[in-house]
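Lab notebook, bench 4. The sequencing result for the construct came back, and we need a structural model before the next group meeting so we can plan mutations. Quick request posted to the team channel:

Model the 3D structure of this chain.
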Amino acid sequence: MAEKTLYGNCIEPDFPFHIVAKKIGWLSEELLSASRSECPDNFVSLLNTVLVWSRARTATWLGIEVYSGVNALVESLNAVLDQSGEDAAYHRLELVPRVGQLFITCRNSPRFDWNSRPTHLAIGRNLDFFAPGHIFAGPGPSGGRVGVHFFERCTGKPLTAETISFNTLRDDPASLERLKQFCNRKEAIFNDAMEQLGLVYRFKCQIRYPHHNQIIQNVMDCSTPPTLEWWEENFSALKIPDGVACLDWCGFETNFSEHWEMIRFVHAFLLKNFSVEIFYMFQRNAKQRWDKFDKKIEEVQIEIAQPLNPDKSESLFADLREEFSDFEVALDALRKTPNVIKTPTPNSQYRQLRRRVVLAIRWMQVSLYASWQNIHMHLFERWKLRRPLIWEGGMAVPREPLCEAHVWGYRGF
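Done. Here's the predicted structure in token form:
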């Protein structure tokens, strides 16, 4: 549990894994179905909800577009706790909507801040961040940011993300080691919770530094494959060569040691020819050409996850050389062509309008529920207004310009 392992709070009651694990046979199928859906946010939201339910996390912070799905899961998980006795019911979940967003937390969590207008600092504490409040306006901290990312191993989906001011981290050399220890404990808690619940999902933390691109390039320039430890801590950076757009072509399952030359070849091409601007350029003006390229990348992803077949690998290399050459020609032509914004079709306009209406209605429903919940809390649940437990072992709020730690921390949709 996060309370005991991350914060040293041994008073909080333990989660009854041995009781509830026998009652959630349906959960594996529900998570598997969500992982195969067209919307990856659904799966990530449900998985985060399960981690909060098992007390591996204090809370999770989700968008209102997943409200229906997580609300149904919360009701089902709470029913399991109610059937497991009064002690188990202590860990019941509660949805805490805020404008445009919603928290999910244990209603009896001693650490959750129920403030109806949480700051970035309060949100970070609710989410078990090592450095809550490291949020900046504009260009951000002058020294750049350190990214702390947790990924699910089976699917490769990103679970949580935190940013930390590199200036603040650099000013306190001992804090880097404390950060790594904290992340290792979180990783262990997440994995232990899944194991005790009988679920197959496992997690890995990756830390990225402002100079991470150079770290990656030094290894990619070498013909010798890296270690397994290096790959698992750094492969996700290969999927975002421009630091923004993500192309899913490698992962935990990649047989990188045998396919290292192909991985280096693909990475070198993407480093030169893939960015968020290029992606949208093809989407607007040459979508069929992009789909052809994307299909070839899928072939690469499948191939490099298998044991090396020299003949098949050489054939794929030849195909890639031709495909990449054609892609560069198409990209060069697009760059020379005036950007033409296509007029939306009636069907696409209808879909956009329908989505906006659905989101607007959901936003109003969640906002009304948030207002009602806030009034109810002040009248009948004033215990929630107590000062939450605060851990002082992480990093302090940066004393830098543009820091928004104490700014109201949520936006509208």
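Residues 15 and 231 are 34 Å apart (CA to CA).
Will bring this to the meeting.
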